[in-house]
Write a structure and sequence with these properties.
Blueprint lengths: L6 E6 L10 H8 L3 E4 L5 H4 L7 E4 L11 H13 L3 E6 L9 H10 L4 E4 L4 H8 L13 E5 L12 H7 L2 E5 L5 H10 L7 E6 L7 E6 L3 H7 L6 E5 L6 H4 L11 E4 L7 H9 L3 E4 L3 E5 L11 E4 L2 H13 L11 E4 L2 H9 L13 H11 L7 E7 L4 H9 L3 E12 L12 E4 L2 H11 L9 E4 L2 H9 L3 E4 L5 H14 L1
Parallel strand pairs: 1-4, 1-5, 2-3, 2-4, 6-7, 11-12, 11-18, 14-15, 14-16, 16-17, 18-19, 19-20
Antiparallel strand pairs: 7-10, 8-9, 8-10, 13-17
Helix pairs in contact: 6-7, 10-17, 11-12, 13-14, 15-16
Bound molecules: S-adenosyl-L-homocysteine.
């Protein structure tokens, strides 16, 4: 056994919205060796965890039963004793009905080092996303978070009379199945049955549902709407504020579920743009890019052509490795396929001389020649993906332009676990290779006619159509344009 002991970080993941993960939590997750997570940690947070980190789901085992607490403790200790950095990731806050205390007691007994990183409890997070302030000066002077889970004897242990007397906001957790008993208890102890109340199911997630009602009606509301765990039930006058303050349900993509297939390194912008509008994002990276070694000799060329931001990054990495910098591009002309590529160039101090009016290979080739009066005297060098589209090459060849095609990175298909694509309103594709790899992972387990593919350009759409997907092409080949297109089509439906 190595003498270096690892450490366990008990971390709260918050109620679901990945934006509610704290900076400290993200930081320890990014350097963890192992993540041991619960059922309540949302998919969108799990999909952000880098692939090389071992993930252990203790929310469910083979028989669909949660892994027993003792076994979880054993896993934490075993991994830490192997010298690993272990993140024990829990929904909400680990110390609010999360058994975090019990796990740390166990680690303490074993002399295993630990830290606790609090999270936003769903009791407050779900309330905030329903437009319900947990306290408000005009309505209450205390707040109580209560479990509706019955004890070992099968009985609830709630002192109804005390809570009624205190007149504070009551937030019940784990109470979906026991709430009729709780409502009766409160009413019998003297609470006005007409007291404002609310149920918030899947709080802070795009598919959150909020029901506003009265204490005596809540059990009916739960039954009629088939409310499922996880949900909180809030009792108190503050619930009346939701009508005015429920900002979340008014976001333009609220309720929209989107699968994002681009590579992990570049799909963040798309995912966060959609997430800010209230969409529920699941990242399903279908490709990754790997830099290739290449010979960097640009002396004889007067035009440098870049067809992706990844290509630009690979080019400059090579340049810097060769102890050169952007001065090597002095007196050269530079073309970029679109604004993202141009933006990446600018990061390295190069302003693109040419960007076509439509951001695809065809327009890049055609307009480059026409608008820049390129002739057979010019010497062009392309830095792009291995096996990049033939279209650009054909255009150059048909116009008798001499060129050198330098593959600077390659695209690798990722074989993903199967996913139920029908639960998504849209699937986004930012390249043909994403489409092909996506279809490679799912093979014929999917009825592609049920997939609504949002594609960045015509060639991506063509690839998606070939599988029988419904395709929608963004007006421009940019991420903001894809976000705008999704918002437009979601509202048109
Ligand atoms: N430690 C967690 C609570 C765990 S107990 C926290 O601080 O949030 C599990 C209960 O939490 C569920 O039964 C439900 O009442 C509540 N809960 C967890 N996530 C929720 C969510 N996203 N929306 C509403 N309630 C949630």
């Amino acid at each position: 056994m190595p003498d270096k002991k690892g450490k366990v970080y008990l971390v709260g993941a918050g109620p679901g919205d990945e934006g509610l993960l704290t900076i400290k939590a993200s930081e320890v997750i990014s350097r963890a060796d192992v993540i041991v997570y619960d059922r309540l940690v949302s998919d969108s947070i799990l999909s952000k965890i880098p692939d090389h980190i071992e993930k252990i789901n203790v929310g469910k085992s083979a028989g669909n039963h949660p892994v027993p607490q003792q076994e979880i403790n054993r896993i934490l200790a075993e991994k830490a004793l192997e010298g690993k950095t272990v993140v024990r990731l829990k929904g909400g806050d680990p110390f609010v009905f999360g058994r975090g205390g019990e796990e740390l007691e166990f680690l303490y007994e074993k002399s295993i080092p630990f830290e606790a990183i609090p999270g936003i409890t769903s009791a407050l997070g779900a309330a905030a996303y329903a437009g319900i302030p947990a306290t408000h000066r005009d309505y209450c002077s205390s707040l109580h978070i209560i479990t509706g889970h019955s004890g070992k004897n099968g009985k609830l242990n709630i002192d109804y009379a005390s809570f009624v007397k205190l007149n504070g906001t009551l937030i019940f957790m784990m109470a979906v199945s026991t709430f009729s008993q709780i409502a009766n208890g409160l009413i019998k102890a003297g609470m006005n049955p007409e007291t404002e109340a609310a149920v918030v199911e899947n709080g802070t997630r795009s598919y959150q549902r909020t029901f506003l009602s009265k204490l005596c009606e809540i059990p009916k509301v739960i039954a009629a709407n088939h409310v499922q765990s996880p949900a909180i039930i809030i009792v108190g006058k503050v619930c009346s504020l939701s009508e005015r303050l429920d900002w979340f349900s008014r976001l333009p993509l609220k309720g929209c579920r989107i699968l994002v297939t681009g590579p992990k390194t570049t799909s963040g912008k798309l995912a966060s743009g959609l997430g800010e509008l209230g969409a529920h994002i699941v990242e399903y990276p279908c490709i990754r890019t790997e830099p290739l070694d290449f010979r960097l000799d640009i002396r004889e060329y007067n035009w440098l052509i870049f067809t992706s931001a990844v290509g630009v990054a690979a080019f400059f990495n090579k340049l810097y490795e060769s102890k050169l910098d952007s001065r090597a591009l002095c007196h050269k002309k530079v073309a970029a396929v679109g604004p993202q590529t141009a933006e990446e160039l600018l990061k390295h101090g190069i302003y693109a001389d040419f960007v076509p009016s439509i951001f695809d290979s065809r327009h890049l080739g055609e307009e480059l020649i026409k608008r820049n009066k390129i002739t057979s005297k010019d010497k062009i060098i392309l830095f792009r993906a291995k096996d990049g589209t033939q279209e650009l090459i054909d255009i150059l060849e048909n116009n008798h332009i001499s060129y050198t095609d330098v593959p600077v990175y390659k695209t690798v298909y990722i074989k993903n676990e199967k996913i139920d694509v029908e639960q998504f309103n849209y699937v986004t594709f930012t390249s043909e290779s994403c489409v092909k790899s996506f279809a490679g992972s799912l093979a014929d387990t999917v009825d592609y006619s049920k997939v609504h593919a949002i594609c960045i350009g015509e060639s991506t759409a063509k690839a998606a159509k070939a599988y029988g997907m419904n395709t929608i092409v963004s007006d421009m080949a940019t991420i903001p344009s894809m976000v705008a297109k999704i918002t437009e089509v979601y509202h048109a439906n």
